[in-house]
Amino acid sequence: MDLVLRATVAFVFIYAVTRAIGRRELAGLEPFDLILLVVLGDLIQQGVTQSDYSVTGAVIVISTLGVLTVAVAWLSFHFRRLRPILEGEPIVLVEDGRPIERNLRRERLTVEEVQAEARLQQVPSLGQIRWAVLETNGRISVIPRGEAGGGGAGSERPVA
């Protein structure tokens, strides 16, 4: 039972840390970040299993983490009010070509990073963005303005 409690504490701590770090940082892992994750995993394993190096101990810990992961997904799916807490909410970064500085600062993003992501999605300039949204998975979705420049409903040209 001690291993289950330790694994639960580790799970809650890791979950809180990953939420605090921010989704954008986790979406773009650099080589150093990957090494840090491996080291972190080893440190967590030592804290959870203490001196229990048995196969049984490993199975109990892995099973506990798996059950907790499924439980969080189940809670998020069945209880809509918990979703923002468990998964976060999409955040608008750019609206009608204008960056929302408060949201960029909160997510530790620069306008240049948003522009780079827009270029990757074939939108050449910030002025051509209707919406840029930081999704809950850490990716930035870019919705360009309509070709006519209005960007409102019905402003797109019909396809012949």
Judging from the principal axes of the Cα atoms, what is the shape? Answer: elongated
Largest sheet: 4 strands, antiparallel
Order of helices and strands: HHHHHEEHHEE
Strand order of the largest sheet: 2-1-3-4
Specify the structural class.
Answer: alpha+beta
What is the residue-mean pLDDT, rounded to a whole number? 81
Number of helical elements: 7
- Overall strand count: 4
Gyration radius over CA: 21 Å
Helix content: 55-70%
List the helices and strands and how they pair.
Layout: H1 2-21, H2 23-27, H3 31-49, H4 55-78, H5 83-86, E1 91-95, E2 98-99, H6 101-106, H7 111-120, E3 129-134, E4 140-144
Describe the fold and architecture.
- The chain has seven helices and four strands.
- By secondary structure, it is an alpha+beta fold.
- The protein has a four-stranded antiparallel β-sheet with strand order 2-1-3-4.
- It is elongated.
